[in-house]
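pipeline stage [seq->struct] | target=F-box domain-containing protein | organism=Oreochromis aureus | residues=455
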Amino acid sequence: MLASCLDSSTRTLSTPSPGLILPSKSSSLSSPALSSNGHETNSSSSSSAPAETVAVIHPQPGTHTRSRQSKTHHYAPIDLLPDHTLLQIFSHLSTNQLCRCARVCRRWYNLAWDPRLWSTIQLTGELLHADRAIRVLTHRLCQDTPNICLTLETVVVNGCKRLTDRGLHVVAQCCPELRRLEVAGCYNISNEAVFEVVSRCPNLEHLNLSGCSKVTCISLTQEASLQLSPLHGQQISIHYLDMTDCFSLEDEGLRTIASHCPRLTHLYLRRCTRLTDEALRHLALHCPSVRELSLSDCRLVGDFGLREVARLEGCLRYLSVAHCTRITDVGMRYVARYCPRLRYLNARGCEGLTDHGLSHLARSCPRLKSLDVGKCPLVSDSGLEQLAMYCQGLRRVSLRACESVTGRGLKALAANCCELQLLNVQDCEVSPEALRFVRRHCRRCVIEHTNPAFY
């Protein structure tokens, strides 16, 4: 535990501390307050818009002339807490809150900037000058080890629209021990900055680039590639990669990602609408350890692509092909045959899926826990009866807008799948009597429905 291992003699001494959020044009009359999530709120009612935010530096508390009023020390109750207890409290605070605590007094300053509290930096807010905030924070955390921050392992800057390549360049240069980077929604990020981060941070395992529409692939910089030995190759250690809404990603980009990131286990490519079946061939060839794969709304992916996905064989546990309208029973048979350990399948909106495909899935994937076949009009009671017979461990089933499903299929599910926790039958022609049957046999099941007669 952080508190128990702290040695108060190793505290960081007098160095300036950054206050992350302050108005760019300070006023002696009013100053905006800082919310816990990193947004700025203006206490003055006369201001029509929040002030622009910047990262600034504040001096260490207690360095000015002491008060002349009274020499008697009046301690607040919190001042009586030992250092290790305060550190335990500080360990639960956000980045902004820690910076504010560092401005209270000299003791809190020393505790708040203890390096062991700074394994994570988390910044939020559209108005935040993320580039400057990152630069100031990393500079402060590099005081004991010039130009390198050895404690920082996680940087989360989701939703900071002002983050640019400059901010990521600072992270790449100062944080060689980085393991997790999240920049979701930061659409000003480009390939160049991402390349530098993955090249300079060899321990990076988790990378979230969702919404970074300028990113088209992930690779090492040319300099980093030349420094690697032939035995090491051009491998990047990323295990988790989210490129949801990276609209510019194409087959060639995914081929580059697959060849450089062979250790991928979690890959999310939702709404990467330019990807085709050919891209999945490279993925199966270079990344055999993928356990979770999302191709939702990749409308150019079809049965051939699922055949390539099936080459992942025993590793695949989670698969989402929602709204991939080119997928039919043919592709589903490949998945069912070669991926027997599948736990989660989202095939919502795959209108070519029928009871035959569902039957193959049920017989070959008995460990299935969650299934979404909503808006699949060709799925009927026959397919549900096969599921009930072979997949008795089902916990979540969505049949929303499945027009051919009636009470018969629901009764089969309820009678055999006792662990059912969620059943979605919205916009289905199901009688109240069938829903009551489900409630009787699966007491813990939440039923989502649109039948006004059932309550």
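stage status: PASS
auto-comment: The first strand starts at residue 17 and ends at 23. The longest helix spans residues 130-141.
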